[in-house]
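Worked example 3 (structure in, sequence out).
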């Protein structure tokens, strides 16, 4: 009898893990599609990878091409090509590093910053359409579960 229960538990666990995999795949796919649409809102002429660079610069500020490549998981030649396109379109600029006169920092122009913020605002509206369906308790549970799944378990209450 106990072996039968263990088999049922194992079968249920397998089904649950497959269902979780399906939902995570759906989330990742939807997130990727939303990122591609957001990049097109920023500038339809550019590849979505260029918008990754723009987003990184918006979040973290000026950076060397090497850091951009490492942080976005792109090779240096791709970053260089994309940065050149972004420069030609007036979205980024290069300046001499203030602390290391041999280094070059890449940063957003005001136009790049404004267009990025606009595209992100539209993306956020799509995101909020989904979470607005959850009440506060459900949202708190969802956040806690995601923190646990992502390995960021926290003893802190979310509402603190």
């Amino acid at each position: 009898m106990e072996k039968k229960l263990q088999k049922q538990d194992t079968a249920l666990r397998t089904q649950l893990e497959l269902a979780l995999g399906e939902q995570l795949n759906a989330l990742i796919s939807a997130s990727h599609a939303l990122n591609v649409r957001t990049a097109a809102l920023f500038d339809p002429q550019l590849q979505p990878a260029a918008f990754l660079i723009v987003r990184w610069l918006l979040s973290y500020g000026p950076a060397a091409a090497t850091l951009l490549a490492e942080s976005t998981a792109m090779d240096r030649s791709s970053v260089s090509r994309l940065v050149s396109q972004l420069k030609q379109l007036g979205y980024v600029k290069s300046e001499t590093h203030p602390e290391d006169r041999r280094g070059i920092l890449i940063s957003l122009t005001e136009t790049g910053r404004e267009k990025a913020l606009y595209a992100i605002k539209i993306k956020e509206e799509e995101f909020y359409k989904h979470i607005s369906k959850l009440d506060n308790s459900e949202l708190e549970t969802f956040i806690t579960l995601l923190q646990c799944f992502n390995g960021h378990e926290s003893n802190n209450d979310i509402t603190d």
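Notes: Residues 69 and 75 are 6 Å apart (CA to CA). The chain has a mean pLDDT of 90.
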